[in-house]
Specification:
This is DUF3105 domain-containing protein. The chain has 252 residues and is an alpha/beta fold. The protein folds into 2 domains: 1-62; 66-240, no CATH class. Helices cover 38% and strands 13% of the residues.
Length: 252
Amino acid sequence: MAKKQAKSDRQAVIAATLKKQKTADQRRGFMIVGVCTVVAVLIVGAAAFQPIKDWWDLRQFKGKDLASIGAPASVCQKVTTKKADGNQDHVPQTQTVDYKDAPPAFGAHWNVAGLAPAPISRKLYTADDRPALEALVHNLEHGYTILWYDDTIAKNDTDMKELQAIADKLSSTTNYRDKFIAAPWTSADEGGAKFPAGQHVAFTHWSAGGSGNTDTSKQEGVFQYCSAISGESLSDFMLKYPYTDSPEPGAM
């Protein structure tokens, strides 16, 4: 009788232990599900938050024109030019071109469908996704103005918001007057050439030597350097050197 009672007691203890274990397992399961749910909500919330934050930050530029964004034109140096070459000088995609200027305004370039020139639909690039220089020089041949910015600008959130606002002002994909790209100039690009000391932004344009000019000997590379982002100076630059003043203005 005592043995049966002892066996019954042990079974009761085992049953109680198993019940506690099952309850603990269920509690852990609920906790894991709860944590996963919270993490998922945070991930989704973060993904949704960034576009909202960008919209909020950029709303300050909504009523401004291009010339009102960033610093005044006084932060920029005088425009300089130099004789250009490379018109219709297409090299294979596997070939890199040693551009002597930082950044380039003309030269040999790629002519690869889907890669060069870069599409007019994209106005602002970062170091993570910027096309190769050889592709962007093809854009210059087609009349684009490229605003190049260095790492100092890239690391400044306010500066990048101003660049996004400028890109938004020039967002048309059908109006060729908006042939514009903002692209980073990185340490990997520098080689032996760098921005002038204290300058963090550069505008470049490939001029035909005047709108409608077909004499390739008149072509020039146009450069302007700035210590900060200046929508005013960019606006003046693009008015003085429109897309029509390029070797191939009618090409996308």
